Amino acid sequence: MSTVDVDDRGRIYVPKDVREDYGKKFRIVRLKDSVKLIPVDENPVEGLKHAMKGLKDVSKEEIEKTVSEEAMKEIKDDLR
User: How far is residue 53's CA from residue 50's CA, in Å, rounded to a whole number?
Assistant: First the structure.
């Protein structure tokens, strides 16, 4: 397990071994008591299925809410 710090510009450094295993692009998902980085896969549906395997305690409603919020943020960002 790695520990990372946030720099003064709000950036984190993702260790090389993590980037090699998961790629360089991640979604940040806010959960009730934590934050999860989910690798963005070339096939997003398969990537999400893989990422959700460890989240058995997260409700379907919480996942749907998070996905909807993130999609709306992306749409707003694309319109700028």
Answer: 6
Say how far apart CA 76 and CA 72 lie, in whole Å: 6
Q: Give residue limits of the domains in the chain.
A: 16-79
Give 44-62 pLDDT, tens digit per residue.
Answer: 666 666 666 666 666 778 7
Quote the CA–CA distance of 55 and 51 in Å, as a whole number: 8
CA distance 39 to 24: 8
CA separation for the pair 22, 61 (Å, rounded)? 26
Token pair for residue 53?
């395997």
Amino acid at 11: R
* pTM for the whole structure: 0.47
